[in-house]
Amino acid sequence: KHEEELSKTALSRLIEDRLILQEAKRQNIEVKDKEVNERFDDIKSRFSSEAEFQGLLVKQGISPSTLKNQLRDQLFMQAIVDKEIHSQINVSPTEVTVYYRGQSQEFTNPPSRKVDSIFVKTKDNADEILGLIKIGEDFSELKEKYNEGPDIGLATRGQLLKDLEDLIFALKAGETSNIFKAQDGFYIFRLIEELPAQTKKLAEVQDDIFNILTEQKTEKRIKEWLDGLKKKAYINVK
Asked: Which among 21, 64, 16 is positioned nearest to 235, based on CA atoms?
């Protein structure tokens, strides 16, 4: 069934490409030889030698002239899509603002905690370090002396194991945790800073929103345009 679906998708794409190409020619879209040759030379330049380029053409069973014809068709389709689709897409500042207000959760960073940590491979070492912390030894100095692993740095809700997340998020600023057993050793954490959930400002995300809305409008416009071409066309699938 998967192969059947892929076959239907490929056939649908082939039909759409033919319809787009026909529409480009119907509208007398012009593609200059210079454009075709530039695209051809660009592809050719990606190969280390002429022999390598010609070898690939032979392997694909096509000649240089066939490749140029394919590139010409691509340029025809690109030009008509630019004219009928991309040039018709407009996203206003108001639309960006409305999207931001309605989808603000997309641009909100979850609560996080900035943490320092000491990692050791044995429980005895972890017990010794925790004991030294409890009698007032400096966490940073102990870390410099004993640490055997990487820092977590920033712990964010939803990105850690639940037990580890619960431990870190229960700490207050400046507070040190009990020993946490990890898969390959033992951690002791010290909370540096609590960072609450924070929504990014519109100015920070307006370009992202513009791209999202442009993509949505483009997909909608392409579907409508292709549906229109299909309704006007006579398609005979053998």
From this structure: 16
Neighbouring-strand partners of residue 119: 187
Provide DSSP, 98-119.
HHHHHSGGGGEEPPEEEEEEEE
Compute the distance between CA of residue 212 and CA of residue 205 in angstroms, rounded to an integer: 11
Q: What digits encode the pLDDT tens for the residues 149-193? A: 888 888 888 788 889 999 999 999 999 999 999 888 999 999 999
pTM of the model: 0.59
The residues pairing with 113 across neighbouring beta strands, listed in sequence order, are 155, 194
Helix-strand-coil split of the chain, %, nearest 5: 60, 10, 25
Identify the CA nearest to 84 among candidates 149, 142, 11, 19. Answer: 19
User: 3-class SS at 29?
Assistant: coil
